[in-house]
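DJ-1/PfpI family protein
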Amino acid sequence: MTAAKKAQRAEVLRVGIYLFDKVELLDFAGPCEVFSVTSELNHFGLFQVLTVSQDGRPIQTIHGLRVVTDYSFDNHPPIDILVIPGGVGTRSEIKKEKVLQWISRVNHQAKITMSVCSGAVLLGKLGLLDGLEATTHHEVLDLLQQTAPRALVMPEKRWTDNGRVMTSGGISAGIDLSLHLVSKFYGQEVMKKTMAYMEYGDWRTT
C-alpha cells in the first residue's frame, strides 16, 4: 500500500489551538495552515483544526486582528493535538488559574501538546517541561528558565520533541514543528506534499 493510500485510511486527529487576547498571529496561523493544508491535500482527512478561547468569544491578536473562535473551555470536543501559541498575552494568561487548569486537563487527555514561542512559558509554569528539552523565542529564553528551572532550555534548537510534549522557537518555528508532526504521524511523503503546496522552506529539494 502506498503512503498516499495509507494517509487516506489514517485516523483523523483533532488539533485544538488555544487563542487569547494579544496572541502572536503567526504563532497560531502557521500551525493552522500546516494542519489545514495537509487535511485539504488528503481528501479533508488526517487533521481537523479548531480554535478555543476561554469563554468562546472573539479574541484580538497583538497586532489588532480580531478572530472568531470555535469553542470555549466548556464546550469543545476532545483534542488530540493541543497547540499553545505565544505573544505578549502569555504574560497575563500565566496568571489565570482557569487557563492553567484547562491546559493541564487537555494535556492529560491529548496525544501531543506543543507550544510556539512564549507559549512554552505556560507549559513551564505547569511543570510540563521539567527534565525535558525546551526552547522558545530568543527574547523569552531567560523568562522560560525562570519559570521552568528544571527544564533543559536549548537556545540553539528551533524545536524540541520530547514525545508527548514539544516546543518551538519564535513565531515561524511553529510551522517547522507542525510539519515535523505531520511527518511523525503520516510520513515524509505527506509532509513534503504539504511543504510543496505552501512553497515553504527548501521544499524543491526535500
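thats it. Strands lie at 13-18, 47-52, 59-60, 66-67, 81-84, 112-116, 133-134, 152-153, 159-161, 165-168. The longest strand covers residues 13-18. bye
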